[in-house]
Amino acid sequence: MVNAQPADVVIIGGGIIGCLTAYYLTRHGLKPVVIEADGIASGASGTSAGWLTPYSHVNDAAMIALSPATLNLHAELAETLPALTGIDHGYRPGPYLRCAISEAGISELKEFQSQRASEGVSMEWLSGEDASAMSPWITAGVVAGLRSDNEPTVDSYRLTISALQAAEMGGASMLTGKVIGLSSSSEGVASGVRLEDGSEVHGGAVVIAMGPWSGEVASWLSHPVPVRPQRGEIVYLAPPGDDEGPELEIGVNIVEHGGSLIRKRLGDTIVAASKEFVGFDRSITITARDELLINAAQLSNRIETAHISGQTACLRPVSEDGRAYLGAVPGWEGVFLATGHSGEGIHYGPVTGAALAGLIATGTSEFDIAPLSPARASSTTV
Known about the structure:
The protein contains ten helices and 17 strands. It is of the alpha/beta class. α1 runs parallel beside α10 and α4 packs across α10.
């Protein structure tokens, strides 16, 4: 069975990348279909920390260069999406504080500050006393701090759902099914996709946004897609009781041990996040929970009395070189790849979606995505 009315674009994957790509395509007047094997935002997009930062992975220069644009787009989406869909996705600007408790940590912070300055990003250096004064949650002997004022947070699940709903309002549609291959009108020319139930969905272009499962398409494309899953576990802390002091009001971490506390406007405080290469196992573990809490406790003794409200695990799509794959697939006409964003898919989701939509609709992107071309994967493996 083939869809009677071909879509303008077929998008494989209902995470943040797929849904925002659909939204931006509708802004160009196109009507895409999003095909999702499970549920919208059922993977990493539904359980990520929602911290809008480019600094949680390997700080790749080509990715960081896109950060100002994606932050501007996030700010725009915080206005436009709720107005369209009525869904508040929890966008929250606010300070983020990186703390050092040793001379080694001071050196790390200074290097980090210098790197950011070279990119045109200013971060304020604080004395240990001034850093500690920013939050009663900070109980460690902080000797220095680095304050950032441009790393907001969002509720990633709500953002993804809102993006899809806005796309549907613009003419997009959503279909549940597992894609098992491409349909081709001729060699190297995609005409759509084939589903596990034997049906086909045809469209003028195909976007592969399958997150950590994107490696499966290498056999469809005869082109490598070196992406593997990385499990990320998060622990959630319930709001403190009346006699337990104030809630955390800022994001904060300790550079020596990586313990991070992230305040969410619409959710519980997050203790983030593990980085585990365990294949496609999405189980939550006591080991990760304990490690996250122990690291965070070195920054704040509030961890010792906090109430755990939950724990989640997701799979991030990690590329071999720490750089996303974004753009046209070599050897194919009308096939585009968007994956490999590691733990920063929510952050880079808007610029990815807008760049792809421009590329598909007009043949060009207003953003420099040339360094992210899937062509570079021709000689890499995972």
